[in-house]
Amino acid sequence: MSSTVVTRFAPSPTGFLHIGGARTALFNWLLARKLGGRFLLRIEDTDRERSTPEAVAAILDGLEWLGLDWDGDALFQFARADRHREVVEEMLAKGRAYRCYASAAELDDMRALARAEGRPPRYDGRWRDRDAADAPAGVKPVIRLRAPTDGVTTVEDGVQGRVVFPNKDLDDFVLLRSDGAPTYMLAVVVDDHDMGVTQIIRGDDHLTNAARQTHIYEALGWPVPAMAHVPLIHGQDGAKLSKRHGALGVDAYRALGYLPAALRNYLLRLGWSQGDREFFSTPDMIEAFSVSGIGRSPSRFDFAKLENMNGHYLRGMADADLRDTLVAALPHLPDGPALLSKLDDSRRAKLLAAMPGLKERAKTLVELADGAGFLFAARPLAIEAKAKEILEGGGRAHLAAMLPGLRALEGWSAASTEAAVRAYAERAGAKLGQVAQPLRAALTGKAASPGIFDVLDLLGRDESLARIADQATA
RNA sequence: GCGCCCAUCGUCUAGCGGUCCAGGACGUCGCCCUUUCACGGCGAAAACACGGGUUCGAUUCCCGUUGGGCGCGCCA
User: Fold this and answer.
1) What is the arithmetic mean of pLDDT over A57-84?
2) pLDDT digits (tens, 9 = 90+) for A415-453
3) Please, what is the average pLDDT of chain A?
4) Which of A13, A120, A317, A349 has its CA 20 to 30 A from that of A208?
5) Cα separation, A267 vs A19, whole angstroms
6) If you average pLDDT over each of A106-110, A350-354, A469-473, which comes out highest?
7) How many CB atoms are closer than 10 A to CB A448?
8) A142 and A176 in contact (C-beta within 8 Å)?
9) Cα(A185)–Cα(A208) distance, rounded to whole angstroms?
10) Mean pLDDT (whole number) for A19-26
11) Which of residues 200-259 of A touch strand B (CB under 7 A)?
12) Strands (E), A254-404
């Protein structure tokens, strides 16, 4: 246990925690938990314009909901600006960085010219070796890294393998802005180093940055952490997951009725695999995870598969747990608050009793809540279109004819009502379905529900009889 | 434009030179179960992007083409 792994998740608080970030966080979390290391959280808020406290809250909330707990307090990058400047002073002193007085207009021209000549738009190093005495008066300089111009920089990546970048393509990027604020490129390196990060797992949009950051590590004489760049997640159409393609924050997945355990499992299998295995409980995925199992090609997000997986987790839960999970989620679900306001002890009990029949018909908590709707409905019930058709198409007559027999029942249970209904069907020369469907329509207002005799039992004698009577005479 | 990454069924993927006329999962379709809808069971259709090599032998290795993606800011 001499070399403990330290991983981190480092989002910038400029928006919600999106699905790609959630997966990155999951991978880092899994590795730390598997190896008995630490999983740290760093908020990269050096962009003062775009960072917001709301976004910070959304990210923390999202991670908590997903069950990804971080070790220690979250670190805010902006608060470490003094330390970042200190490191730059050190680089300046060692000649590994220099002041650049080029104006914004100058840089624009430089890039435009490079493009026109078919060269990559890079800083040309015009202040790299210039005398400080040449500095124009009144211009605050930026500080740039004195990067190697020849040779190559190699990134040993846990996912991508050995990736080699010609140094001529990597320019002298900015470390400190003219107002003295550190840039992301600098801050990441300093913070990862100071936090003792040993393994970086992040999106492969950072792969090129890895080479640039390697230059900083080398300039400082610091060891480069192990890196793993994970291919990005794309939308269902193959294009980048963006707002317009329905990129959602994890809070949206909660509102859609997904279970954190199911989302974790889905996210794990999106880009990571271990043979044919699909299902991993949380302890199992901690046990099984490894960087070497991460795939190299980008993947597309597939709601259908997530939904299927969520259904598996839903059905696999114990009834009481699922009932409690549903109740706890109600505030976040579309019509949840309304149901919550009607939830009393009696309904809590009924919800539990109904769970076996409900859960195998639902893939999400939203569907589960919807299925449970008949337990909360008040008379007279709202009747859906399909249920109405059943009632209009001869259903009401059956209800009226069944009523006396049901009323005369001694005991009221699934078994006793089933016997009565079957007896009636036989007498009427009807198939069970022909009488069960009108009952379902009257009792639930829908054309689909759990087994009808269970519904009768759940609702109880008085409520059942009243609902049937409502529709028999309507 | 330059650099880098990627390329197996519609989707997620297994495959790490012969075991592959390519396996699993989701989705789709059919059948069974059945009071509805589901669940469950059974079955079907469905892929190695293309072209060159290397090799006795390529889905697996190399090169190119094509197609995607990412990066190239005093953003992160």
Assistant:
1) 96
2) 999 999 999 999 999 999 999 999 999 999 999 999 999
3) 92
4) A13
5) 8
6) A350-354
7) 12
8) yes
9) 11
10) 95
11) 204-209, 231-232, 234, 238-240
12) 299-300
Name the protein residue, with chain letter, whose CA is nearest the C1' of B35. Answer: A433
Q: What does DSSP assign to residue A244?
A: G
Amino acid at site A127 = W
Nucleic strand B under 7 Å from the C-beta of A424: no
Query: What ipTM was reported for this prediction?
Result: 0.94
Residue A433: what pLDDT? 92
Contacts of A274 (CB under 8 A, 6+ apart): A288, A293
Burial A204-221 (b: 16+ CB within 10 A, else e): beebebbbbbbbbeebbe
The encoded tokens of residue A137 equal: 């008066």
Contact between the CB of A118 and strand B at under 7 Å = yes
* Residue at minimum CA to C1' distance from nucleotide B7: A297
Element (H, E) at A155: strand A152-157
Alpha carbons A314 and A325: distance in angstroms, whole number: 10
Whether the CB-CB separation of A291 and A200 falls below 8 Å is answered with no
Nucleotides on chain B that have an atom closer than 7 A to a protein CB are: 1-8, 10-15, 23-27, 35-40, 68-76
**Span A365-387, pLDDT tens digits:** 999 999 999 999 998 999 999 99
Find the Å distance, CA of residue A164 to C1' of nucleotide B63.
Answer: 18
Q: Is the CB of A84 under 7 A from strand B?
A: no
Per-residue pLDDT at A360:
95
**Cβ–Cβ < 8 Å for A40, A71:** yes
3-class secondary structure, A38: strand
